[in-house]
Amino acid sequence: MKPMRLVLAxxxxxxxxxxxxxxxxxxxxxxxxxxxxxxxxxxDWPAVSWTLVIAKPTAARVIDSPRISVRPTPGExxxxxxxxxxMPATDMLQDAVQRTLEDSGRIPAVASxxxxxxxxxxxVMDLRxxxxxxxxxxxxxxxxxxxxxxxxxxxxxxxxxxxxxxxxPADGVDVARVxxxxxxxxxxxxxxxxxxxxxxxxxxPKPAASP
Length: 211
Known about the structure:
This protein is an alpha/beta fold. It contains 2 helices and 11 strands, in the order βββββββαββββα.
């Protein structure tokens, strides 16, 4: 696991007491965290002959934000004061999945949908959760939940749909340790999604591209 990269590092000791209610005005110096998700190709991932476009993931507004969300108690959502992601959570998810597939060597081409390229298949993702959840415990765990659909662009039918959930405990309450847990959870979810996409596309009874 590579260490979290800090785009801007300012001395902060952030714990649950350093949270601020969502929507409050941010006046403090900000530490920006940039998870560096690197997922090597797994031996069981098949090589495919088709191409893929990845649509911009959707998410609730509170999730699709650079703010780092935390649930100190069930039903309560706050954000860490003085800390931020380098990009919104949906952008982190899309970047991680696209880079993993590109670097895998298992697929001829992968592009974002806004690149204007029509791929054989399209990956549609809805990011349902991206928060640190105490769930009644002393330490939070990073929760990443994604619903993904693989769509055959030629036949315009859904080939497969699945919800992915990854949770990784933080080894402390300060935001740097929580961010490290997020990196681990996002890496695990990315690996699951990438492998599932390759297997599902190859299992399509009406393939969008001929071998």
